[in-house]
Design goal:
Blueprint lengths: L8 E2 L9 H9 L19 H18 L5 E6 L2 H13 L5 E6 L2 H11 L3 E7 L23 E4 L1 E2 L4 E2 L11 E4 L16 E5 L10 E6 H5 L11 H6 L9 H16 L2 H21 L5 E3 L10 E6 L5 H10 L2 E2 L10 E4 L6 H17 L2
Parallel strand pairs: 1-13, 3-4, 3-5, 5-8, 8-9
Antiparallel strand pairs: 2-10, 6-7, 9-10, 11-12, 12-14
Helix pairs in contact: 1-7, 2-7, 3-4, 8-10
The structure holds pyridoxal-5'-phosphate.
């Protein structure tokens, strides 16, 4: 199936496929962006031209997520990994504790970083079943006096995802939304801090978005190193130092693309249809393919499955590649196949994979 510019269906877990229209606009604006006489890469981050780019990106993100008053939007660097390090540095410390819900590899890493800063309780771990499920957050017993509860809405490696926002938990909720932000509507008021690396659903690597409640900022420990100080970053509107200007610009184009598409309700419908096409091929295979995630915990962004005969996995992945289905090899901790189908990944690619899965099973049954 031929794609514009001979592009492949790119199932990479991130960085990953971006909307073709966004890439075309970036190309068209490369040498002279909107009459500035230069590219965004060459612009001062203090110029009027750049100010309008970053302000528009923030306004569009606020519109998409319906971010209420009393929340700051920050565009920072260091990826989601620095966020799960900076967060405990800002809010933990001697005598302070936090609860962590660990549903996969990224949650594990977040705990490792937080343990260096304070008292961490892992109130749920899915490790015993190789992270194939998510719990009911409301049903977990929590430690008294926790500064916050941290969870990962979608575990990119294992392909397990919470079905929606947490209900009133009575504790500040912090969420790593790196791999499912903007894939569906989200009630930001349920969270005190959300962070997400850009390189799945928002844009290129190099920028991480933080959405943080003023109330949470007010509880930050004093005297943080400036670059790791959420309050300082908020006071400087993400311009304390030179931000990742070009990555933020591309995120802004992606936000406009999403708004033009009808926002997150529309995106969610498309994402569900995409995921359903592949899950149907797994479920209809009579056991030839086995989904890693339990029903009810299945991700609509990263679909993980194994073949009944694991020796056929490499052949599956390499034959798929010859048909323009690229980047399907699963992470070593789960094995098998992982199809990452973020917002910009087209429905036709999911249908093509489902057809390939059926053919492969028929040929190699
Ligand atoms: C859920 C999640 N959290 C954190 C990270 C780490 O992100 P980064 O590489 O931007 O530090 C990733 C990367 O894939 C991720 O998927």
């Amino acid at each position: 199936m031929s794609q514009p510019y001979d592009r492949v269906f790119n199932f990479s877990a991130g960085p990953c496929t971006l909307p073709v229209g966004v890439l075309e606009q970036a190309r068209d604006e490369m040498l002279n962006c909107r009459g500035a006489g230069m590219s965004v890469m060459e612009m001062s981050h203090r110029s009027k031209a750049y100010e309008s780019i970053i302000e528009r990106a923030e306004a569009d993100l606020r519109a998409l997520l319906g971010i209420p008053e009393g929340y700051r939007v920050l565009f920072l660097q260091g990826g989601a990994s620095l966020q799960f390090t900076m967060l405990p540095m800002a809010f933990l410390g001697e005598g302070r504790s936090a609860d962590y819900v660990v549903t996969g590899s990224w949650g594990e890493k977040a705990v490792e970083a937080a343990c260096l800063e304070g008292n961490v309780q892992t109130i749920f771990s899915g490790k015993a079943t190789n992270y194939d499920r998510v719990p009911d957050l409301g049903g977990l017993s929590r430690s008294p006096g926790a500064e916050y509860l941290h969870f990962t809405s979608n575990e990119t490696i294992q392909g397990v995802e919470f079905a929606g926002d947490p209900g009133g938990l009575g504790v500040p909720v912090v969420c790593d939304m790196s791999s499912d932000i903007l894939s569906r509507p989200c009630d930001v008021s349920k969270y005190s801090l959300i962070y997400a690396g850009a390189q799945k659903n928002m844009g290129p690597a190099g920028v991480v978005v933080v959405i943080v409640a003023d109330e949470m900022l007010g509880r930050q420990r004093p005297n943080r190193p400036p670059m790791l100080d959420y309050r300082l970053q908020a006071e400087h509107k993400s311009l304390y130092n030179t931000p990742p200007c070009y990555s933020i610009y591309i995120c802004g184009l992606v936000f406009q693309w999403l708004l033009d598409l009808g926002g997150l309700e529309g995106m969610n419908r498309i994402n569900r249809e995409k995921a359903d096409a592949i899950y149907a091929a797994i479920d209809g295979s009579g056991g030839y393919y086995k989904g890693h995630a339990q029903l009810g915990s299945r991700s609509i962004m990263n679909i993980t499955f194994t073949l009944a005969d694991p020796d056929l996995t490499d052949r599956f992945v390499s034959e798929a590649k010859t048909q323009g289905l690229d980047g399907l090899k699963g992470h070593r901790s789960v094995g098998g196949v992982r199809a990452s189908i973020y917002n910009a990944f087209p429905l036709e690619g999911c249908q093509a994979l489902a057809a390939f899965m059926r053919e492969f099973a028929a040929k190699n049954g």
